[in-house]
Amino acid sequence: MERTIALTVNEESYEVTVRPHWMLVDVLRDRLALTGTKKGCGGGACGCCTVLIGGEPALACMTLAIRCGGRHITTIEGLARNGTLHPLQEAAIAHGAVQCGYCTPGWLLSAKVLLDRNPAPTREDVRAAISGNLCRCTGYRKIEDAILAAAARTR
Amino acid sequence: MTLPKFDYVAPRSVQEACQLLEGGGGGARAIAGGTELLMALKNRQESPGVLVDLAALPLDKISYSDEDGLRIGALVTLRHLAAHPLVGAKYPVLAQAARAAGTVQLQAMATIGGNLCQNTCCMYYHRAAGARQSLDPCLKLDGDLCYVVAGSAQCWASYAGDLAPALLVLGATIVIADSHGEKIMPLRDLFSGDGKRPHTLGPGQLVTEIRVPSAASRSGGAYVKLRQRAALDYPLLGVAAYVAMDAAGTTCREAALALTGVERTPVIVEEACRLQGEALTDGAIQTLAAAARRRARAINNVCGIPVRYRRDMVAVYAESALRRARDAATH
């Protein structure tokens, strides 16, 4: 059984033929060559595969691609605009919040969801917002600093 | 982790979904948020022939009126529920429970209906397919032995949904649909008491709506949760408390206490009704917390946490939840 679905990813339209058991993360990475979305635990625990579906955070490793027909998806590739990094990305670099980089796309998108709704978050708000994103390198402090700095810059 | 193959249908109405589930017999499974079901598929604990996608059904609304109370469509996500201003203001115990489940991403995907229909947990069941090969299958995996209670012919997996205790203390009812129509029943009747098949839903039956009576004035609630990490984990213990005070704010009109993560169903601590007509003193709260400790029979089915600790924490967390509920009701 195959079905062709229309996906809008980072405001570009795609038609993809998928099988029911294909995960969104695999379709993004292997069919659309959008390899910024990372595959970590594969079980909903690490947050590496976080994308936005209709503006809401979602785990691409726990989402069936066939259910995404007609949906608007934002991946990490959609965060920069016209070659200019998003303030969150710039703050991540400035604050040394990236080491191995594997968790980075996921927490950046979680942070985007936070700042879209709450332009002036507290550190506690930031911690809650990224509590579904595991980082094994930086220890979170620099990530929190970067998100708070980006929030201050965009206010 | 890859998924096994299955067929996929996306019905447009509740009636059609129920017919598809009924017609598919045991081989059809409903998928709402999918956060639990897809893990069960990845771990090869389940292998349905067809997934019936509920996403297109019109069950994603929250409404409130003083006459009807709160009505929550079964497909409302936990994130939507927790962020709803009316839910936060009138039913804080519910908003707290929704925020305590999983992570932000899982809350945005998971639905309230799916959370209530969450499967029971046990360290012998919740293991990756490869790890399970080292042991003969347990009762929950259609084997014939229990590793937790040696010699038992019953499965002792624990119910660990976060939303159920919060909804139980609020006196929730649920709407169940099947191909013949729908019926309303108390939420407590959704739970069977069987660790292997923890719900009473038959094939082709769906929870479509959750109804909560209108919020009483001078009421308060709280949900507190014991877990290994402050995010993601299922509750090792969850306690929901609800109290309503009289107009003077001194005497308890109504009190309810419910637990999750300890037994095969959510546990309603019936002794809470003894607080009716009483002053909610610290002593009265401690007496009820001690009753909850005696009532709850957590068993040793969680990896790395001594069961004695989980049992002892029942009184501590029950007291904390009751104090918070009282403080919210009297301020």
In short:
The complex is a heterodimer of chains A (155) and B (331). Chain A is an alpha+beta fold and 155 residues long.
Structural class of chain A: alpha+beta
- pLDDT below 50 for ≥5 consecutive residues: which ranges of chain B? none
Through-space gap between termini of chain A: 49 Å
Q: Which pair has the most extensive contact?
A: A-B, 29 and 30 residues
Question: In percent terms, what proportion of residues of chain A is strand?
Answer: 15-25%
Query: What would the average pLDDT of chain B be, to the nearest integer?
Result: 95
Order of helices and strands of chain A: EEHEEEHHHH
How do the helices and strands line up, and which of them pair or pack?
The complex is a heterodimer of chains A (155) and B (331).
Chain A: E1 3-9, E2 12-18, H1 24-31, E3 50-53, E4 56-59, E5 72-74, H2 87-94, H3 104-117, H4 123-129, H5 141-154
Parallel strand pairs in A: 1-5
Antiparallel strand pairs in A: 1-2, 3-4, 3-5
Helix pairs in contact in A: 2-5
Chain B: E1 7-9, H1 14-23, E2 28-31, H2 37-42, E3 50-53, E4 62-65, E5 69-73, H3 78-83, H4 85-90, H5 92-100, H6 104-109, H7 112-116, H8 129-132, H9 163-169, E6 173-178, E7 181-186, E8 206-212, E9 219-226, E10 237-245, E11 252-260, E12 267-268, H10 282-295, H11 307-330
Parallel strand pairs in B: 1-3, 2-3
Antiparallel strand pairs in B: 4-5, 5-8, 6-7, 6-8, 9-10, 10-11, 11-12
Describe the structure.
The complex is a heterodimer of chains A (155) and B (331). Chain A is α+β, with helices and mostly antiparallel strands and 155 residues long. Chain A is 33% helix and 16% strand. Chain A has 5 helices and 5 strands; from the N terminus they run ββαβββαααα. A 5-stranded mixed sheet of chain A has the order 2-1-5-3-4, with helices on both faces. In chain A, strand 3 and strand 4 form a beta hairpin. In chain A, helix 2 packs across helix 5. The longest helix of chain A has 14 residues, at 104-117. The N and C termini of chain A lie far apart (49 Å). Chain B is an alpha+beta fold. In chain B, the strands form 3 sheets. In chain B, strands 4-5-8-6-7 form a 5-stranded antiparallel sheet. Chain B has a 4-stranded antiparallel sheet with strand order 9-10-11-12, sandwiched between helices. A 3-stranded parallel sheet of chain B has the order 1-3-2, covered by helices on one side. In chain B, strand 11 (252-260) and strand 12 (267-268) form a beta hairpin. In chain B, helix 10 (282-295) packs antiparallel against helix 11 (307-330). Chain B is globular. Chain B starts with 6 loop residues before the first strand and ends with a helix. The mean pLDDT of chain B is 95. Classes of the chains: A alpha+beta (155), B alpha+beta (331). Chain A binds chain B through residues 1, 3, 19-23, 42-45, 47, 50, 56-59, 61-64, 66-67, 110, 113, 128-129, 131-132, and chain B through 1-8, 10, 31, 34-35, 38-39, 42, 51, 53, 55, 77, 79, 102-106, 108-109, 230-232.
